Amino acid sequence: MKYKCFEVSIKDHVAHIILNRPEKRNAMIKDFWVELPKIIHDIDDNSKARVIVISSTGPVFSAGIDIGMFVNDIGGSSDKNQPHYGVDFYNNSVLPLQNSFTAIEQCRIPVIAAIQGGCYGGGVDLITACDMRYGTSDSFITIFEINVGMTADVGTFPRILNHMPEGVVRELAYTGRQMPAVECKERGLFNKVYENKEDMINSVMAVAKEIASKPPLAVYGCKRIITYSRDHNTMDTLDNIAVWNMSMLAPSEMEEAMNSKKQKRQGNFSELPKRKNLSC
Q: Is 253 a catalytic residue?
């Protein structure tokens, strides 16, 4: 299928979603917000892959939300005496944008971000919704919204606080400064930093293929319980994982995992069941 903002390919159980508007610095136009969750849901609901990699094109990963959306598509008054957009603006405009990135977090399979160059505003919202993040040495993030008189509202704050200290997040939010890749790794946001994009993509794909070689149901269980653990206390999580394993543990998959390792071959695992009529 052809998309306006993305290229999508699937090989060896790994789906590669590429932001593909380099001439516009991969700014997130209206089509972006419709296409991304549609792609994620299609891959997940139809069990087309076991891992998703999101990367980009050109010198900038993403310039963030296209400000033109707020003027042309989202609306609202530019009158300084009427600064509030109101409930309708939030329900009709902001919630769909938030849901586009929540689709990444709620996807059953791991999603990995590979970041080159600048990652501005909405780009930070995107990568913080992913399971893992890798960057090139010239990459950086910036919570840019403050520089255009906005408060980031599409997902950065509740997610980035899981990776970096509150004081650091506040500094980034209040100043809009750029945090370079090395600091992103030191702070725990990036898993690893590479000298160039080619090395990064090759390494990320190797990680993705390694994950894709594992039992999909067990990987899904890990993703679900890790996210649950983040948002709940220890006792609630222990109860949740006990119920999960009681319901979902598959002895045949465990046996195949052990046998394939012993026999030094690829495991022959069942795919996640397809889901119907769950897409937004």
A: no
One fold for 6-212 and 216-262 = no
Which of 59, 48, 45 has the alpha carbon at shortest distance from 280? 45
Residue range 12-51, pLDDT digits in tens: 999 999 999 999 999 999 999 999 999 999 999 999 999 9
Q: What is the dihedral of CA 223, 229, 235, 241, to 10 degrees?
A: 0
- Other CB atoms within a 10 A radius of the CB of residue 122 amount to 27
Average pLDDT in the 212-236 region? 96
Maximum C-alpha span of the chain: 72
CATH code of 216-262, in short, is 1.10.12.10
Catalytic, 145? Answer yes
Name the active-site residue from 17, 54, 65, 115.
65
One of 122, 123, 135, 221 is an active-site residue; which one? 122
> Which one of 44, 45, 66, 125 is the catalytic residue?
125
CATH 3.90.226.10 fits 6-212, yes or no: yes
| Cα separation, 65 vs 27, whole angstroms | 6
Tokens found for residue 48: 């087309």
Please identify which of the residues 45, 131, 145, 253 carries the catalytic annotation. 145
65 counts as catalytic: yes
Name residue, tokens 């549609």: 38
Give the C-alpha separation, 151 to 84, whole Å.
13
Residue 122 appears among annotated catalytic residues = yes
153 is catalytic: yes
Domain ranges of the chain: 6-212, 216-262
Burial class (CB in 10 A: 0-12, 13-18, 19+), 11: exposed
